[in-house]
Design brief:
The complex is a heterodimer of chains A (about 120) and B (about 110). Chain A has about 120 residues and is an all-beta fold. Chain A has no helices and 11 strands. In chain A, the strands form 2 sheets. In chain A, strands 2, 4, 5, 6, 9, 10 and 11 form a 7-stranded mixed sheet that branches. Classes of the chains: A mainly beta (about 120), B mainly beta (about 110).
Chain lengths: ~120, ~110
């Protein structure tokens, strides 16, 4: 059973380009979370998605950032017109379906990917 | 708004020492607390999860305690080894269903 797969692992973009980060959750998982880790900082929540639905995007910057989790295929975090301040590690995590609010993490059921390191030059 | 703080930010110790890493959170209304390990350039590995109704969890040389009312957790590492060198992250889950992380403690254990 493969873990949470993220790609690319490392991505270099010039200012103004677009970055697309992909996350394939663990088999059977339908909840996906994206976190960002800036240099020397902790992980910050960005967005929580279920299949075809954005559940909570309270941590997403208002502009340039978007996320989706289509019915088929991986979840995509898209950053348009990247700036140097977007350079960070972006982590995806997944958990299984069917858990009521507040209990999504009641067991040891959240798994993180290895991260995608974005460098903007 | 929930805030999670970890002290110390960095720790360097000789092999064999017993260690205590501290985590504090501002809102005691949490569902659980987890400790993670992060190696440089890698993802997160869950070490221990403590439910809000529990007071501690143990796994091998690791023991985590939770005092929900005071908003504190400690991670105790017994007989530290160089392989324990990593960043240790504490995270809580509150009623927003999100993991809220501390900034971590960077541990170095030297031979």
């Amino acid at each position: 059973n493969a873990g949470v797969m993220q790609n690319p692992r490392h991505l270099v973009r010039r200012r103004g380009q677009e970055a697309r980060l992909r996350c394939s959750p663990m088999k059977g998982h339908s909840h996906v979370y994206w976190y960002r880790q800036l240099p020397e900082e902790g992980l910050k929540f960005m967005v929580y998605l279920q299949k075809e639905n954005i559940i909570d995007e309270s941590g997403m910057p208002k502009e340039r950032f978007s996320a989706e989790f289509p019915k088929e295929g991986p979840s995509i975090l898209r950053i348009q017109q990247v700036v140097r301040g977007d350079s960070a590690a972006y982590f995806c995590a997944s958990s299984p379906p069917g858990l009521p609010s507040g209990a999504a993490f009641s067991g040891n059921t959240i798994y993180f990917g290895e991260g995608s390191w974005l460098t903007v030059v | 708004k929930q805030e999670v703080t970890q002290i110390p930010a960095a720790l360097s110790v000789p092999e064999g020492e017993n260690l205590v890493l501290n985590c504090s959170f501002t809102d005691s209304a949490i569902y659980n607390l987890q400790w993670f390990r992060q190696d440089p350039g890698k993802g997160l590995t869950s070490l221990l999860l403590i439910q809000s109704s529990q007071r501690e969890q143990t796994s091998g040389r690791l023991n985590a305690s939770l005092d929900k009312s005071s908003g504190r957790s400690t991670l105790y590492i017994a007989a530290s080894q160089p392989g324990d060198s990593a960043t240790y992250l504490c995270a809580v889950v509150d009623n927003t269903d999100k993991l809220i992380f501390g900034t971590g403690t960077r541990l170095q254990v030297f031979p």
